[in-house]
Design goal:
With 147 residues, the protein is mainly alpha-helical. The chain has one domain (7-139): Orthogonal Bundle (Arc Repressor Mutant, subunit A). The chain is built from 6 helices and 2 strands; from the N terminus they run H-H-H-H-E-E-H-H. It has a two-stranded antiparallel sheet with strand order 1-2.
């Protein structure tokens, strides 16, 4: 069986098909797109993070984050809360509706992760994770840092 060895191409291709699959499944099941679910999980893990920090966690630039946040505010999944310590600072907070949708997404993502590892040994999965984490670390360096 032919196995394409173009890593960049195959990573992009796998990401695209996986994202389409996850997005359609999650949105169909709970009425919220995968990108919004991702922000809900990030908010749950980092409740005091700034929008910029959340964007970094999700790999989104500021304009993409602004659009995502606006859509989620309109859907009443999140709200913007001004800091009591500094009125110039605002944080995002998950609403009860957002928390309900995040909870509803958990079993879907558990199922998806089980599908992803099906047929692979623990050692093979560890190698894939090592590779993906290395790629992330290697290419997340600030611009100009060429170590």
């Amino acid at each position: 069986m032919y196995m394409d060895r173009r890593l960049f191409f195959m990573l992009n291709r796998a990401r695209a098909v996986l994202y389409r699959h996850a997005d359609s499944g999650v949105e169909q099941a709970i009425g919220v797109p995968a990108a919004q679910v991702s922000l809900l999980f990030a908010l749950d893990k980092f409740p005091q993070a700034s929008m910029q920090e959340l964007g970094e966690v999700l790999g989104l630039n500021s304009s993409a984050m602004t659009g995502l946040v606006q859509r989620m505010k309109t859907a009443k999944l999140i709200e913007r809360v001004v800091s009591q310590e500094d009125a110039r600072v605002a944080h995002l907070r998950m609403t009860n509706k957002g928390r309900d949708r995040m909870q509803a997404a958990k079993p879907l993502l558990v199922k998806l992760n089980k599908q992803l590892v099906e047929g692979f040994t623990t050692e093979e999965i560890d190698t894939v994770l090592k590779f993906l984490n290395t790629v992330h670390t290697r290419f997340s360096q600030p611009k100009g840092d060429t170590e």
